Amino acid sequence: MSNSETNLSNERLHDFSRSSADWFWETDADHRFTYLSNDIESKVGVPIDYLMGKSRWELATQQSDNPPGHWEQHFAALNAQLAFRDFEYCVVAPTGVTYWFSISGIPFFDEQGEFLGYRGVGRDISDTHSMQVELQRYRSFLEEEVRKRTEEALKERERAISASQAKSIFLANMSHEIRTPMNAIVGLTHLLRKEITTPGQLEKLAQISASADHLLSVINDILDISKIESGKASLEELDFELEGMIRRVSSVIGMRAQAKGLELIVDIRTLPVVLHGDPTRLSQVLINFLGNAVKFTEHGSITLRGQIDAETATDLIVRFEVEDTGIGIPTDAQAKIFEVFEQADQSTTRNYGGTGLGLAIAKHAARMMNGDVGVRSTPGVGSTFWITARLGKVKTAGPEFIVPEAIGVSALVVDDLPLTQAIHSQLLKRIGLNPIAVMSGQEALTAIQIADRELHSFGIAFIDLHMPDLNGLEVIAKIRALPLRHQPHCVLITAAAIHSICDEAKSAGYAAVLQKPASLTCLREIVGQLLIAEENQNPHLKEEKRPWDALLREHKAGSRILLVEDEPINQMIAREMLEEASLDVYVADNGQQAVDMALASPFDLILMDVQMPILDGMAAAHRIREQRPDLHTPIIALTANAFSDDRRKCLAAGMNDFVTKPVDPDVLFEIIWKWLPK
User: Fold this and answer.
1) For a tag site, which of 101, 282, 470, 644 has the least CB within 10 Å?
2) Which of 127-141, 425-439, 634-648 is most confident?
């Protein structure tokens, strides 16, 4: 290399060092620092002279935050002259300031192979580590609170059979006290994910969010079993669209299944569109069954199917089954797993987590719906959990799903799973299409060419993303290269999140992307868009549903929202969420202030906390409706009280809807979109 090239390389290295968030280091064979980049003092604040000539273990302080064996493992890697990544340790600078460093290094040798030392990069992670430690402490505090409260609830059960009113008050307070700080954790995590772009930090936030979801699930299970045992549980009786309920259930479980590479299959082809009963209880049971299936299954698929077991003039006995390919359950354990706090193997608590309450709640829910629960399982093969429920028939047949433009149009279904083929084909028949199914990408190419040659070309092709021979992106590339008289509209079907593949699919030539499990409503919408657009020669096709906050920003920006909340941290979280959606937010600290503000100036919507000093939310809503009966501003309850009685009380006080804390941002935005003036 010439001198000019060497100088240029050195200049580049120097520029990279100055612009990088990292700093560079080198040690000798005794692991003492022999080189540190000059900008370490400005980036970290620790003088170079303080670090040079010392080993990291001479500089490090003994910290209880380090896991057991932390340094031992590091020494073992150094002794073996192995590369290492992201080793964390703590240093107290001469100024007294504490720093946390993360370093990565590789060994280097001379021409004879003699070990000379290590070179690598370092990063100051003090802020991230502090946040992580504080959040861990807060989570531990909450888990300890849940443990304590659970023990209290169990003791109360033994001595409070004749004191159900007192127990109800206790449960409501427990829910409120736990859900209030949970709202802060969930809300702050949501806001941070909007601000942070570093992959490592985003991963940590995802872990915090998952831990919060798990903790909330535990809390909900505890509260549900307590309501059941105190006789406070009740059923709703209403007409509901079955597919919509199943779609919501699938959305809750779908991401967990995706993360483990599991195929989620839904087969409700034989069930009515609309039923009468309690969709909340039924979905709770199905979410529990599906959640367990994902938890105990490492590979394969999970299938949710529904069928009619019996029928009268007014009712149906409906059976839902969740089948997995997981670890299975020993025969001697199957009889007890539906009992409170029982699991097939107590070690599952350590290995997989869980309270042992979910299946007991499912059993009680089934009995309330005049049905039953059960399981069939073979260890090492898988399990099938089932529930039966008596649901009412609905005279209205529900929406008509035929798309007139689809009648007589041939559709190609490409999927390597026979069951998925059959389900999608049946759904497409209900829309009016004439489906033909094949097992692979190569078979799809052959079928498309034959159909085109014989002058009955496919109008639409539904192609799975993941297949053994050709994946969905490879298939469409080959389709677009074929000399066809008529190119079919192609729809990509995937179990992955749509946003992760949508742009790539569109660039490859797909007209739309559909997430598994495919629903009749979504299929109908996509088919209608494609075929109507073809008739109208309209090339614009919608790939996916707009998020609620984006819809608010586009169509409801500037809407006046009165936020009534007494907790400062919840105020801050809610305000930032709402302002993200371009809404104008006005804050009231208590119910009386909310009444005064609502009567003094117009608002488009009021978000009302329930438990507040001076005047609570229900009393405030009642006064607003009483003093201004002509004022039809929607009032939405925001509360940590999660019981159905609380919902009824809020509606009776004059509120229009109900959102439970901790607040799911998507749910909140959807409710706001629903109630803002059109």
Assistant:
1) 644
2) 425-439
The length of the chain is 678
| 635-639 vs 584-588, strand pairing mode | unpaired
- Domain 549-675 in CATH 3.30.70.260? The answer is no
Among 164-168, 455-459, 654-658, name the one with the lowest average pLDDT: 164-168
Superfamily of domain 20-124: PAS domain (3.30.450.20)
Tens digit of pLDDT for each residue in 471-483?
999 999 999 999 9
Q: Helix or strand or coil: residue 403?
A: coil
Determine the Cα–Cα distance for residues 92 and 95; give it in Å rounded to an integer. Answer: 8
The full set of domain ranges for the chain reads: 20-124, 129-229, 238-393, 404-545, 549-675
User: SS3 of 312, please?
Assistant: coil
pLDDT at 331: 85
Q: Say if residues 414 and 464 touch (Cβ distance below 8 Å).
A: yes
Q: If DSSP codes are grouped into helix, strand and coil, which group holds residue 199?
A: helix
Rounded-to-integer distance, Cα 306 and Cα 225, Å: 26
Q: What pLDDT, on the 0 to 100 scale, is given for residue 558?
A: 93
Measured CA to CA in angstroms, residue 513 lies from 523, 580, 643 at distances of 10, 27, 38
Which tens digit of pLDDT belongs to each residue from 331-377? 888 877 887 544 544 444 444 444 456 788 788 888 889 999 999 99
Give the residue among 664, 571, 678, 574 at the shortest CA–CA distance from 634: 678
Q: How far apart, in whole angstroms, are the C-alpha atoms of residue 320 and residue 387?
A: 5
Burial of 350 per CB tally in 10 Å (0-12, 13-18, 19+): exposed
Tokens 């979109």 belong to which residue? 673
Q: 129-229 maps to which CATH number? A: 1.10.287
660 CB contacts (<8 Å, ≥6 apart)? 179, 639, 640, 642
* Domains 404-545 and 549-675 in one fold: yes
pLDDT at residue number 98: 82
pLDDT at 167: 56
Q: Which fold has domain 404-545?
A: Rossmann fold (3.40.50)
Q: Give me the sheet containing 460-464, strands edge to edge.
A: 434-438, 410-414, 460-464, 489-494, 512-515
Range list of β-strands (E), 211-262? 238-241
Containing 493, the helix (H) or strand (E) segment is strand 489-494
Residue 541: its pLDDT value, please?
Answer: 37
In this prediction, residue 162 carries a pLDDT of 54
Q: What pLDDT is stored for residue 26 in this prediction? A: 94
The CATH classification number of 238-393 equals 3.30.565.10
Question: In the structure encoding, which two tokens stand for residue 358, read together?
Answer: 């979910």
76-105 residue pLDDT tens: 999 999 999 999 888 888 778 888 888 999
